[in-house]
Amino acid sequence: MKSMTKVLSMMCAGLLMASVFAGCGGEKKAGDTIKVGADIDLTGGSASYGKSAQNGIKLAFDQVNAKGGVLGKKMELVVADNKSEAAEATNAMQKLVAQDKVVAVIGPNLSSAVIASTAVNTGAKVLVISPMGTNPNVTVDKDGKTKDFMFRACFIDPFQGTVMAAFAKDTLKAKKVAILIDNSSDYSKGLAQFFETAFVKGGGTIVAKESYLQKDTDFKATLTKIKATNPDMIYVPGYYQEVGMIVKQAREMGLTVPMAGGDGWDSAKLPEIAGKSALNKTFFSSLYSAEDKSELNKNFVAAYKKAYNETPDVFAALAYDSAMLIVNSIKTANSADSVKIKDALAKTAGFNGVAGSVTFDPQHNPVKSAFIIEYKDGAQAFNTKINP
Amino acid sequence: MDMGSFAQQFAQQLINGISLGSIYALIALGYTMIYGIIKLINFAHGDIYMLGAYMGFVATTMLGLSFVPALIFAMVAAGIAGIIIERVAYRPMRNAPRIAILITAIGVSFFLEYGMILIATPQPRTFPAVFEASVYNFYGLIVNSQQILILVISLVLMAGLTYIVNHTKVGKAMRAVSFDADAARLMGIDIDKIISMTFALGSSLAAAAGVLVGVYYNSIDPLMGMMPGLKAFIAAVLGGIGIIPGAMLGGVIMGIVEAMVSGFFSSTFRDAASFVILILILLYRPSGILGKNVKEKV
């Protein structure tokens, strides 16, 4: 055990020294470009996420370079494929910080991959911003201490509960809400808890709090109980399979009040299971909507369509925002030094991105806008953007 | 909660419970018939119910049949599957110890579940809406046309089964085999044929339940049979295993208890309640509600 620790500490020391040299080398070679790495999933199970992210980052840097770059230098993107695997993400990170000597890294998209590769970039003092790593442990360690060089561009899952509480109170004018929780999922419990806290704080009442388990099929008994409490809205932060049946059975029971949930509702299967008409008056929270009418987003969608001939998805939008956040921090820091960029990024406040405004909290989680999507006759329609 | 709304909620839960219970009853009938005739707890029975649901899915989507022909198709297909399973898996074990045949049943159950995952993928499938559900409102009580349909079809099938068992020659033979297989054989009854018939009947009832559930919840998956299979087993024990009216009664009681527990306590206690019933009945009345305490012959 002891020798193991010794080896580890020696490795750490070696890594630190390597990073010192790397830093020197970077300064010297800096020349006329600023290198930013992308540790993304171009092959493997989540390859479509990585492809979108690459498109988003590339578009961002092309736009910046077309306007003359930053601090008189062009942005240069170095892409490393992590094959959708945690171990490969670490290798890719190693390559980016040691070999390519990038000043910042965007990615990985998967939380597990971000957490696995944290030691590498932290050792090399290079900041990482994960576009879609939603797990709270991406930016904080087990003791709740913020990881200095780790950031994310998306909000953490439970934040959706807070957003939906605001929407329920302000837009739906709901006063009494029933919550139906998937008891077998931490995601669902987290959303429900944040929803309840925010909704009660805003003066609302939770009239019923019921739960179900994954793979349940009959919800009529529970819904009958909920119906007896006369709620103005039902919050069901679950996944589409059970949510579909819950919505269907609720409508059959004559429960016509609005129903809402989180991004677990975002599936083409949902209208099939619940039925298109039953889904009317249902809403869910999401990180991004291409239909958002802000000037910034309209320009982004148009440029993206022109470059890649498709509508940007949430991965493209958040990777684009990540790239722009880094560019913005380089400008504020007035330096291409990784540590200075990191300090500037941590102080980011009111940054305008295509997926809404971003302000980093002390845990490096962005306090940001969220989007409410409504189902209308089985199709998703952008309803509103909620700013923090 | 005032008295009126309590009564209304109670009545609504009763309706929910009866429609759920008639599904359990249909599955429990097969359990009880098979136990009655070869003293085997057929743990693959819940998976026959799943198989029936998939057959109904195939009939409505790929063959384009309407509801009633699809129901018959699924029942016939599952009946044949039941005969094959008995022939291949259980008949060679007829004289083996009962524990061996029970383990075989568990093996068949896994075979059906994971075989279906192999063929149809583990993803749940959406059962097509074969007819629109209309909702009736009686003084605040909500009844769905599909709930009525489940109840009616269950009653018709149970009546049919009772007729077959009590008033036909095959039924008489079944009762004879169940009572004393050796004596029945001496009377010239082809026991193998009768056992096959029993499996076919029991399996087709389970398949009917599968199709009804597919239509009602419009979602089916390869592991859908596990929980209802266990619940139906409890229902069969509750009513008195081997007794046909007992299975119907047990099924309906189970459905109502589950609805009441989720409605007035918490839905997370629902499954626990079912298994508590099993423990209580085994402790205090192992022969079931309708069962008579028969002394074992030595």
TrEMBL record, chain B:
Main location: membrane
GO biological process, one term: L-isoleucine import across plasma membrane
Source organism (scientific name): bioreactor metagenome
A Gene Ontology cellular-component term: plasma membrane
Membrane topology: Multi-pass membrane protein
Signal peptide annotation: none
Protein name: High-affinity branched-chain amino acid transport system permease protein LivH
Keywords, in A-Z order: Amino-acid transport, Cell inner membrane, Cell membrane, Membrane, Transmembrane, Transmembrane helix, Transport
CDD domains in alphabetical order: TM_PBP1_LivH_like (cd06582)
Gene Ontology MF annotations: L-isoleucine transmembrane transporter activity; L-leucine transmembrane transporter activity; L-phenylalanine transmembrane transporter activity; L-valine transmembrane transporter activity
Family annotation (Pfam families): BPD_transp_2 (PF02653)
PANTHER family attached to this UniProt entry: BRANCHED-CHAIN AMINO ACID TRANSPORT SYSTEM PERMEASE PROTEIN LIVH, HIGH-AFFINITY BRANCHED-CHAIN AMINO ACID TRANSPORT SYSTEM PERMEASE PROTEIN LIVH
Localization terms from the record: Cell membrane
Family from the record: Belongs to the binding-protein-dependent transport system permease family. LivHM subfamily.
Keyword Transmembrane helix tagged: yes
Transmembrane segments: 20-41, 71-90, 99-121, 141-165, 194-217, 232-257, 269-287
